[in-house]
Structure formats: structure tokens, C-alpha cells
Predict the structure.
Amino acid sequence: MVDSILFITNAFPDAASSHRGIFIKRLASLLHEEGYQVSVVAPKIYKESPLFEVQGGVKIYRFPFFAGNKLLIEYEKIPYFKMIVYYLSGTILAIYAFFRNRCRLIHAHWAIPTGLIGALLKSLLSKPLIVTIHGSDFRLGTTGSGLIRRLFLYVCRRADHIHCVSKVHAKALRGLGIAEEKVSTFPMGVDRTFLDVGKGRDQIFREASVTVFSNRNLQPIYNVSLLIQAIPLIMRAMPGVKFWVAGDGPERERLEKEADRLGAMGHVQFLGRVRPNDMADLLGKVDIYVSTSLYDGTSVSLLEAMASGCFPVVSDIPSNREWIRDGENGFLFPPDNAELLAQRIIDVIRNRSLIEKSRKENLRLIEERALWSVCMGRVKEIYEDQLYSVSHGTK
């Protein structure tokens, strides 16, 4: 019997070029290759997005909720009316997809908002529920309003198993009274393509042609303005350095104006959205990877950069410290200090021995802890444990 899994996720790619929830799509595709039947329920954000489609054997169902081409993360305040429609529409479609595909297990990605739909289905259908906490949901669920915090805790308590992408989240869940034995910690995976790029690098970069790269979304939480502020400081010491800023979002126009005001536009290129399939090749042309994020779960972008052999210079936040040891396999900097970010980038360029040492260490870390082949084994183990418990009446 083929095991049928229902994904309920707040993000899933709308087109081949879409980046939204690309790692959810990759997980679904890999599970399909392993013989699982995967159905995905996700919100319909864009007018042109189909209500139903099949991508590589994975069925995708999208529920409408008057999104108006706007992501939930782009709202300054919670759109309560839209969220009521979101939950009603999402729950109805999830129930339909569950029965239509004879699913045996529910896997909700993001405890808030879609984890609540998963918890409702678990209550209605008495099927095992796995919840993956990615980062933004944890921040919202622990710092949001009292109602949001209660909903987050409700979802965590209803889940049969919780997958955290960061040890920071797992530790905090224990402090909230969630049993340690029902929590696993491992990242979303990295394709071996990135590791092949890292292993294929044949030389340490030259100071005259160094490229610094950021590919975080251009939204306030990712703090890309800090990198723009650091560029003039770096150019005074090293005028040959190039800066590439990939990604898109509501901050783009403001960032371009800021770069122009600081006299940095001649040194920085705004690349826009990069197709997921093109990211490995692009990282192969990059020397230093920068993330200025104010908050993250385990950043897949960071892991991909490490796998590709880029030197990471990232904000000193708890989730980054799980992967980067300052001065050993990368640099950390306070996310409010453009001067120190600039100095860190200058230090990287001048320290050839650290560059090569960090590259070898980062390739090892990714191969041992973050490749999809490693993470898939953990996911399948969780699924099999839950399905075994159901079939043997231990739940």
C-alpha cells in the first residue's frame, strides 16, 4: 500500500520561477520519488495561480481567500476578515484533498497560520499530525498577541510530532511545556548540486575581482539596508569589490534610492528574483555571502551558500550561531552595525588562509548534516513511526 501524505503549507511555488516555499516543493518531490503519494494544500495568492495542478506527480490544491496578490507577510496588521476566510476555505479544501487522495497522515508546514488547519483536521479525522516550525511562525507565535500565542501553543500540543529547523526553537518549545521526545531538530535540505559547486572551486578568489552577494527577500525583517550602508565603507578600502543583491520585495525601490544617495549604485547590481534552478550556478560565481537578517530559523540560503564554497558573513542571531563559529568557518556581526559588517568583509578578503579553512569545514558540515539525503531519512523515520503507531493501535 502506497502511503499518502497531505501537506498543508502557507507557501508553495506558483510557477517554475517562483521561490515561495521552494524547499516544501523539493521535499514533496523527493517523497514522491521515494514512493509516497503527496498532495499539497496551499493558499492561492496570485490571480493567475491555478486552483489545481500537478507538478511532477505531486497534486497541488490552492484555496482562495481574497489575497489580492499580496502575501500575508506584507501586511503590517493581521487582516482578520481575510484570515477567517483563509481558515474556512483552507479547512474545507484540506478535508476534500484528504479524502480524495485517501491520505493517512497530515504534515503542516508553519505552525501559524497553516498548522491550525492541520490541528482542526486532526481533531475531525483522528489522523496523525506532524508540524514543521520554520522560523517566522515561531517568532509570531511567541511574540504576537495573546490570541496568536495561544493558537501557536494549541497547535504544538495537538501535534503528534514537531519538526524544528533550529535548535533554538526546540529548546524554547521545551520551555513551553512541549515534551522533548516529540520534537526533532534538523534543517530543510540542500541539493547536492550546491555541494558539487563548492567542491569544484579551483582557486581562492583574487582581491581585485571579489563578489559579495545577498539573496534574502527585500523585506524589513531581512535588513538588507545594512549591506547597502556598508558598501561605501568597503569601497574606500577596496574599490574593486562588486556587490550583487538578488531577491525582490517591497523594500526594493527604497534600497535602490538609498544606494544611489550613498553613491554606491556604481558598485551594486540589483538582480531581482533569481530562478531557483539558477541559484547554484550564481553562487559558484560568488566569493562572500552576506545575510543581514534580524531573525531566522535555519536559513536554507545560508546552507546553500556554505555548500557552494562561499565565505559566510552573517548576522549574529541564535540560529546562525548553530552553523557559524565566528572567525572559524565564517564571520558574525551585530545586525545593527554597518561599520563592523564592512570591516568583516574587508577582513575576509585579506585573510586567505581563513577562506580555505572555512570552505573545507563548511563543505563537511553540509555533507554530514544538511544534504537532502540526510534530512529525507529523518522525515521518513518520523512518518514511519507515526504510521506504525496508528496501525498497531498505540495512539
Remarks:
- The chain has two domains: 4-189+371-391, 192-369.
- Residues 4-189+371-391 form a domain with the Rossmann fold fold (CATH 3.40.50.2000).
